[in-house]
Amino acid sequence: MNKYLRWSLTVAGIAAGVVALSWLYTTWAIADARSKGEYVSAEAGMLALMDKYYPPDHKVEILYAGPNSRDGSKPYVWYVIAEVRASARADGSEMGRNGCDNPGTFFLQTKEGSWVHVPEGFFTLFMTSWMEAFDLAGEGQSTPSTDLIQHQPRQFCVD
């Protein structure tokens, strides 16, 4: 076999393997996120997480809910930031400054329209890069639904 043909087949095989593994990881990660909860909006997802991680006496304010990218690309990848005030966390650990936490996390809209929670990290970025290619991404929205962060002080959890 010609050495250039062998080289070309090797490169094509590696590329096909990368695409196949990317599809497997992306579909698995979305299925795993769905199994942990599907939400009607990114804000609803954040509120559900706050109900899980804080006792019933908590108060939540969504400070930002909108696309993770400022340029409007990937409108199906949102970041949500909240301010939570409570007596303690659900696990009993102490709250942050002034009895307040300010969690932030990612939500993705799936092709079916539901939103799922995904953790931060390299593999989240990797997965979101393949969602459109595999037709798994929802339509999303390029403008925030809650854009209060520009009106907030630079420091969170200030009385």
Q: Tell me, what's the shape?
A: elongated
Output mean pLDDT.
89
User: What's the helical proportion of residues?
Assistant: 25-40%
Order of helices and strands: HHEEEEEHE
- Number of structural domains: 1
What separation lies between the terminal Cα atoms?
Answer: 74 Å
- Largest β-sheet summary: 6 strands, antiparallel
% residues in beta strands: 15-25%
Please summarize what this structure is.
The chain is of the alpha+beta class.
Give structural attributes.
single chain, 159 residues, alpha+beta, 3 helices, elongated
Question: Any overview of this molecule?
Answer:
The chain is an alpha+beta fold. The chain has one domain (3-151). Helices cover 35% and strands 20% of the residues. The protein has helices at residues 3-36, 42-53, 122-131; strands at residues 59-67, 77-85, 100-101, 104-109, 115-118, 146-147. Strands 1, 2, 3, 4, 5 and 6 form a six-stranded antiparallel β-sheet that branches. Helix 1 (3-36) packs across helix 3 (122-131). The relative contact order is 0.19.
